[in-house]
Design brief:
The structure holds two protein chains of two kinds. Chain A is an alpha/beta fold. Chain A is 39% helix and 19% strand. Chain B has a two-stranded antiparallel ribbon with strand order 1-2. Chain B is globular and about 85 Å long. Classes of the chains: A alpha/beta, B mainly alpha. Chains A and B meet through helix 1, strand 2, helix 3, helix 4 and helix 7 of A and helix 1, helix 2, helix 3 and helix 12 of B.
Chain lengths: 399, 368
């Protein structure tokens, strides 16, 4: 009996608290009023982010999403810190309940849960960055998107190669000592395609360059990324780049005075002496495409891959403090070459695997060596270049 | 005269005698009201938003739609299940902070069964295999520190904590082995085409099965602790090991048996998470619930029925917090500040239920 009264008291107290708040609610305006973005259309777009704006990766999406929604006058709503679990599906379905017409998720591991949500809600469009399954699952309302970031990394690699040339000319290193280091998150194609294009960019201007890659097994682990960069520097790598989302590698480079080519945006504020250039994906063009497609009632393609022309692949400003002279001019020249097709990032004449040129390679049963190059992001938007080419040494393939 | 004067502090903290039930609840309710007032002030000062609106958004986020209510209940069920698991150990004063790792091991065993036997075994055999495997994996993770504690009196806090890290690394390793695509560090949804090894949807509700299982466990644990001889032995060992020995309780046996039970329930939590919720596994699957469960259990004073309310409170605040960041565009951290304030006041209220503050009386000299 005593227990029962206690339980009753708890329930009553909770009811009191809720009741108080609920009373306040009635006199208030609907929550949607709080959205700080203008609403000119009845379209509503929901975004699902793995982390919040403290992560460079997610912040890159958040800024682009807000800008695109504002520019097109549609309502923006977001859920942050959504893990790659059933919570992701719940978040997506909750956004559907709240009236979203398009739902976008930003993390690779969100994909299977977004596909499940897409199956349940055929009337809503689901878009997903970095995923690989849209062309396989064949759902009319599920789409993947990426960008030809390998072109951006190639250009950043050119800047790295010029820096190496400058060091060789100044007598700081010999041509054989032109070794770069690369901090990678995982060992799958998205990362392999990235470091290989970076390396080939550098090699296009500095033929003697070699590279070592160290993996961290995490997309965000500041300490591991810092330690990986330090290890590479100890291995006499004279320039570092990275594909992971913390500031660990750039700041380790600044401390050691080793030049750095960054990713996801400029890190010059923390690395004024060593930051050379950074490439990043600008998601705004895709968000605009996705929203306009729904507005106009046109189909969103299964796989969308934006390039330099669309503004999806961007380079940051060049830090003249660290970059070699003439970097800007050379990058412009190479950019033109990429645009008119005279330069190909994965030109099969520029790399070998185990000493031999690659003449045939199958991805998902499709031949991808075409017209003298490895045709990246053709079958699907997400990268699939996963060849281990000569000149690049992987220090740790545990991941 | 002044030499003899003893300096008396401004106030004393004095243990209360037994407090009338109604008064203890007045204190608790006042603490929640005070917490809401403080949250309101903090909200206005930091964000300029209307605090009432923030509270209503919180409620909306937790129970604003049928789906949200289901999601709330599902999260309560999982957290409650892990809280039930740690409770007998804590009641025995065995500081098991390894629930995170124990649940993860249960989840890993479940995932392994789904991957290796999902296609080959008939569901009638597959489900018992999954249940036994998950219970055993978690129980082993719990029994090892208990064995060392029982025989060599090792520190169970450090031991169970370390076991968490081993479990996480094991999961990382196996996730890497099975990652899809290779090298991505993600396992994806297991058996997404066949749904082999997925717990059944009852009446079209994905989480109803989980909720029923945990409801049964809650009642079972309440009866076990209150009416079973084992429950009594646990309390005695918790109060004093020497007393327990004196009245002929085999302390080692009680420690091992209780930790086996603790681990076994963690195994069920792992099963519900992997086979009944995510259909996948990652290092982050348990999401720190193994630690939150300790708070749930303590706040409820190890009473399984009260734990329904304390786990509801925690999940309610979490869900509400998420909605605040969605609707107001405020960083998640702000909602966590509010949650922190509310929990701080609730824990603080227990202090005032058990103790009272006596201020220095000015007229003391005169009355002497």
């Amino acid at each position: 009996m005593k227990k029962l009264t206690r339980i009753l008291a708890i329930i009553l107290s909770l009811a009191l608290v809720f009741g108080l708040a609920a009373c306040g609610n009635q006199s208030e305006k609907p929550d949607n009023e709080e959205s700080n973005l203008p609403v000119a259309s009845d379209l509503k777009v929901g975004f699902i982010y793995l982390h919040d704006e403290n992560s460079t990766y997610d912040n890159n999406f958040i800024k682009a999403a807000k800008a695109a929604c504002e520019a097109l006058g549609v309502e923006y709503v977001a859920k942050v810190n959504i893990p790659e679990s059933a919570e992701c599906k719940e978040a997506a379905l909750d956004l559907v309940d709240s009236g979203c017409d398009i739902i976008f998720a930003d993390s690779f591991g969100h994909e299977p849960y977004i596909i499940e949500a897409a199956k349940e809600c055929p009337e809503v469009q689901f878009c997903h960055a970095t995923g690989t399954n849209a062309h396989i699952v064949d759902l009319p309302n599920f789409h993947n998107a990426f960008a030809s970031i390998y072109e951006g990394r190639y250009l950043a690699g050119v800047a790295a190669g010029l820096k190496l040339n400058e060091m060789i000319e100044a007598g700081k290193i010999t041509a054989e000592e032109a070794k770069m280091g690369y901090v990678g998150a995982w060992t799958y194609a998205e990362v392999v395609s990235g470091y290989t294009s970076f390396y080939l960019g550098a090699k296009s201007v500095c033929p003697s360059v070699t590279m070592e890659v160290q993996f961290t097994g995490s997309w965000y682990d500041e300490m591991a990324e810092k330690e990986a960069a330090e290890l590479l520097i100890n291995n006499k790598c004279v320039l570092i780049s990275q594909h992971a989302d913390s500031w660990g590698a750039p700041t380790a480079c600044e401390t050691a005075g080793v030049p750095n080519v960054s990713y996801n945006g400029s890190t010059v504020s923390a690395c004024p002496q060593t930051f050379i250039i950074s490439s990043r994906i600008n998601w705004e063009p895709y968000f605009k495409y996705m929203i306009e497609s729904v507005k106009n009632g046109t189909e969103i393609v299964d796989d969308w891959c934006g390039g330099i022309d669309e503004g999806s692949v961007e380079l940051s400003e060049i830090n003249t403090q660290a970059a070699a002279a003439g970097t800007a001019e050379k990058i412009e020249e190479v950019k033109k070459g990429l645009a008119d097709g005279t330069i190909k990032v994965f030109d099969s004449n520029t790399f070998t695997v185990n000493g031999e040129a690659v003449t045939s390679y199958l991805v998902e049963d499709t031949e991808v060596i075409k017209d003298g190059q490895f045709s990246e992001s053709d079958i699907r938007s997400a990268p699939y270049f996963d060849l281990k080419i000569d000149g690049i040494k992987l220090l740790n393939e545990a991941y | 005269m002044s030499k003899n004067k003893i300096h008396e502090p401004l106030f004393h903290i004095v243990k209360r005698g037994s407090l009338p039930l109604w008064l203890s609840w007045v204190i608790r309710i006042l603490s929640v009201v005070a917490a809401l007032v403080v949250c309101g002030v903090v909200t206005i000062v930091l964000t300029g938003e209307n605090p009432i609106k923030i509270y209503s958004t919180m409620i909306d986020g937790a129970i604003g739609s049928e789906r949200r209510i289901w999601s709330l209940l599902q999260n309560v069920a999982i957290l409650l299940c892990i809280s039930l698991a740690v409770t007998p150990a804590f009641k025995m004063k065995f500081w098991n902070i390894g629930a995170e790792g124990q649940v993860l091991m249960g989840g890993l065993a479940t995932a392994a069964c789904m991957i290796y036997f999902g296609e080959s075994l008939h569901p009638v055999i597959l489900f018992p295999v999954m249940i036994i495997a998950s219970i055993l994996a978690s129980a082993i993770w719990a029994i090892v520190p208990a064995f060392f504690k029982a025989h060599w009196n090792t520190n169970e806090t450090l031991f169970t904590l370390m076991m968490n890290y081993i479990a996480m690394q094991l999961v990382s390793y196996f996730v890497f082995l099975h990652s899809n695509p290779v090298g991505s560090g993600k396992i994806g949804i297991i058996n997404s085409a066949t749904e082999a090894g997925w717990l059944p949807k009852l009446g079209g509700h994905t989480y109803l099965f989980n909720i029923i299982i945990v409801a049964v466990l809650t009642i079972g644990m309440y009866i076990y602790l209150k009416y079973n001889k084992h429950g009594y032995e646990i309390s005695v060992v918790g109060e004093s090991e020497n007393t327990a020995k004196y009245i002929g309780i085999n302390v080692k046996k009680v420690i091992l048996r209780t930790m086996f039970l603790s681990g076994a329930i963690c195994g069920i939590a792992g099963l519900l998470l992997v086979a009944g919720t995510d259909h996948s596994i990652a290092k982050e699957t348990v999401d720190s619930r193994g630690f939150t469960a300790i708070m749930v259990s303590w706040l409820a004073k190890f009473n399984p029925i009260y734990m329904i309310l304390t786990s509801l409170l925690i999940v309610f605040l979490e869900k509400g917090a998420g909605q605040i960041s969605t609707d107001f565009g405020l960083n998640d951290s702000f909602a966590e500040i509010l949650t922190g304030i509310i929990i701080f006041f609730i824990i603080g209220s227990e202090f005032f239920v058990n103790y009272t503050i006596k201020f220095r009386q000015k007229d003391k000299e005169v009355s002497k």
